[in-house]
Amino acid sequence: MSTLVAAREVVPVRIARPAVDARRTFPGVMRGEWIKLLSLRSTWWVLGATVAVMTLVSFAVAMSLDSMAADPLLAPGLAQIHGAEIVSGGYQIGVVTIAVLGALLITGEYSTGMIRSTLAAVPTRVPVLVAKAIALVALTAGVTAVSVALSYVVTMPKLSEYGLVPALDDARTWQVFGGTVYFLVAAALFALGVGTILRSTAGTVTVALTVLLLLPGVLGFISLDWVESIVSYLPLPAASAFLAANDTTSLGGDGLTASAGLLVIAAYAAVPLATAAVLLRRRDA
Amino acid sequence: MIEAHELTKRYGDKTAVDDISFAIAPGTVTGFLGPNGAGKSTTMRMIVGLDHPTAGTVTVNGKPYAKHRSPLSEVGALLDAKAVHSGRNARSHLRTMAATHGISTKRVDEVIEMTGLAGVARKRVGGFSLGMGQRLGIASAMLGDPRTLILDEPVNGLDPEGVQWVRQLVRLLASEGRTVFLSSHLMSEMAVTADHLLVIGRGRIIAAGPVQQVIDSVTGAAVRVRSPRATELVDLVRTDGVTVTSEEAGTLELRGITAESIGEVAAAHGIVLHELSPRSASLEEAYMSLTQDAVEYRSDAITTTASQKGEIR
Q1: What's the number of domains chain A is made of?
Q2: Residues in chain A whose beta carbon is closer than 8 A to a beta carbon of chain B?
Q3: What is the predicted ipTM?
Q4: In this structure, are residues B1 and B62 in contact, taking their beta carbons and an 8 Å threshold?
């Protein structure tokens, strides 16, 4: 008994334990990233722009059916078109705004200095990147699904004139719609990964758009065998392997099967992110 | 409690922090003093794990910062007034930080109130003045009610009222048993705020200890003497370890000798003294003499002024 008392007396004056209840958890980090995304005006601008641009482009493509039908050279091609491709026709433009969203998610923190607050709160660092990736997947999937749904609605009148309204019980329809969401989610993750590696908005947007959009067009002029096979592994041609509803419309031509296309696109998301995670841990903030 | 052990940071071939070791005790305000570019910020960034040391270790409350389950309740850091996304409002910024640790929105509003940001909490941080940015930085440092506070130049950009407030806040936090470590290049600020000093120059610790001790160790207590026979007196008292400076004829400043000894020597030789006053050096003088050789960016004007002082040795 007496030893206990003695022991207690030795204990130095303790600091009152913090009155604030705090414990870092992954769900907490996740919630933090959500608040970050939703509390920036730029997020809402980019999301709004994505929906607007994707819907408008699909609408414009649908409207161009008239002139296509009037042209005796192109009219036979009409039968080859699957309506789902017209509905999701805005994805090549949507990829621009989505890549900006993915890039800003991390480069916005580097350019403003926010990253230091973020990494001081989560010094293990990698959970931040994981939480950002999850939030980005959810947001991109949501906004592209909305865009496709809206495009479906606005193109319906014109598509029905040509009997091209994509049937919702057609597996092809869902392959194209699902593929569109999948491609744009991967593009967002690609930009997030590249952004974490480069830490600059301008550099990231340039690299992302070059790889995602411009390279196939540029390299398309070079008719060397090995260049052509590289081109079929670039994001856009690889995506067309599963975005084209029938074989004749695929961009890359000889390249990939649909499942190979899915894998290649997944690699575009995964490789930069994995590299980013390693660098994020290792580098000084 | 912050403990650094042989901490070193090199960027390329430039050594920012050079093999420093120190311990910062709870319940005190420790000032981290040094000229610009001396390694203060780098050291603080290593403490909270933003920069990785090239060699050595630094722990907070017994563990490396990143190993704590709840970093924000261990350390609150103000490293950069604007480590904040400029497009977000102040309250949202604090909420993103709070969310990671499951800290309640009630606490967020508390620190907003505490730091006097209530009026601007819903304004975007991009439009904040430097002083408001500092307050927001202090608010986010306080979020987790941390045991240790690290504040890099906290009074930078604050108005006099804000300076006073920071001073009182850090004194209060230290009196509650917390560890407070704050940096500044303003010695006047340190003199009134800090209990202990850690003086750094060119990445090395030049002096450490209680404020008064640091001052004394550098300059020693000086004695001011005024006498019509000053030159005579100098010859009598000058021995090893005594330095004499004179700014005007008949007035001396002696170091390394007590006022008593000077008085006795003067009396023994019948020298009239008009003034004999011991005076303690200011922190500013100590700082200047400490960092003389360790200033990274020196302005030329300083040397010119100094050379105008006549110096007899």
Answers
A1: 1
A2: 13-16, 18-25, 28-29, 31-36, 39-42, 108-109, 112-117, 119-124, 282, 284-285
A3: 0.86
A4: yes
